[in-house]
Specification:
The chain is about 10% helix and about 65% strand. The chain is mostly beta strands and about 240 residues long. Strands 1-2-3-4-5-6-7-9-10-11-12 form an eleven-stranded mixed beta barrel.
């Protein structure tokens, strides 16, 4: 593990401990399981489509939410030589990847057991990614994301601004690619006019073929404006890739 990756892991760990300590036992804590399936379709070296089907399940209350995300990516900028196999942030095998990526998409989410009466959301999203290779094949990536949200049956409008900083490194073991990563992401929400949420994630993606990859991570989320102040989640994602021959 490189010095940069160790530093980000220590920062994420320290932030999680700090937030967990300040959120004290009197505040609500939730444990959830997040299974997800992501489908990726590469149209060209620059263009890619994707769809995410995600569920969240509260382990204690059994409350469930589901969401469907449709996205389009466009990569541009100077080509950078990185890895010979797949890379988490790029999503498929390429010897070269663009320095910048723009993503736009649509999210539809709702609570599942009450036909969306508790939670309903429609969101248009826009992301800008910047990827910088560091020494020893470590990738530093920054993502700025804007969410335009319509919430509830009344479709009340609000927006969020999110910034994610992530470090990742590919490790090759025989014919298997392993990509451990760590990231931290604060959220600004216009409903409260404050940075109310911070999410810290650590995990890895394992790829054993050109078609499939399995990702797992542990998420800690602190939200000062939610009834659940501290959220811990196990996220398991199956990635399926399609590419024209």
């Amino acid at each position: 593990m490189t010095l940069a990756l160790r530093r980000l892991c220590m920062i994420c760990l320290a932030l999680a401990v700090l937030l967990g300590a300040t959120a004290a036992a009197a505040e609500e804590t939730s444990w959830e399981f997040w299974p997800e399936t992501d489908l990726w379709l590469r149209l060209s070296p620059a263009w890619r489509l994707s769809s995410f089907i995600a569920l969240s399940n509260n382990i204690e209350t059994k409350y469930r939410e589901g969401s469907l995300i449709l996205q389009a990516d466009y990569g541009f900028g100077k080509k950078t030589l990185l890895y010979k196999t797949r890379l988490l942030d790029e999503g498929r095998a390429q010897n070269r990847m663009n320095t910048f990526l723009i993503r736009s998409g649509y999210l539809n989410g709702q609570s599942l057991d009450d036909r969306g009466e508790t939670y309903r959301e429609n969101t248009m999203l826009l992301e800008v990614h910047a990827r910088t290779p560091l020494k020893r094949s470590v990738l530093l990536s920054s993502r700025l994301r804007a969410d335009l949200r319509w919430l509830g049956d009344a479709s009340e409008f609000s927006y969020r601004v999110r910034y994610r900083l992530m470090l990742e490194k590919e490790i090759l073991a025989g014919g298997i690619s392993i990509v451990p990563y760590a990231n931290v992401e604060p959220y600004y929400d216009s409903r409260y006019e404050v940075v109310n949420r911070v999410r810290v994630i650590g995990g890895a993606t394992v790829s054993w073929s050109s078609r499939f990859a399995l990702e797992g991570n542990i998420t800690y989320q602190h939200d000062s404006r939610s009834s659940v102040t501290n959220l811990y989640a196990l996220n398991v994602i199956l990635h399926v890739y399609f590419e024209p021959r």
